[in-house]
Amino acid sequence: MPRRLIVQLTTDDPETVATALTVGMTAAAAGAEVGVWLSGPATAFALVDGSPGTTLEYAPDPEQALAAVTSVTVCSQCAARRGLTEADLRPGARIAGATTLVEQLLAEGTQALTY
Prior knowledge:
Blueprint: E1 4-9, H1 14-29, E2 33-38, H2 62-68, E3 71-75, H3 76-81, E4 94-96, H4 98-106, E5 110-114
Parallel strand pairs: 1-2, 1-5, 2-3, 3-4
Helix pairs in contact: 1-2
């Protein structure tokens, strides 16, 4: 059974983002299936035109970090509040609701972290 990690990122605070992306990338490099769920201000990281200004010394590049994980999902309510559609998102990112998140969280072998 594959090991799965869900990293839910809810902020655009640079230190918190750096920690979440570092953990996600590291888990992916260790062979885990990693899903990153973006909500609130963190939805901006899924946009095709780049991520918010989060340059932080010794932190992973958000573009590279999100490319390293298995999936990137934007909260459907958060997307709707911002007028976002899947056409606005980076290739491979999607919009999904709480039902999808709960299904993934409850799957056997899944660990979840919220930042």
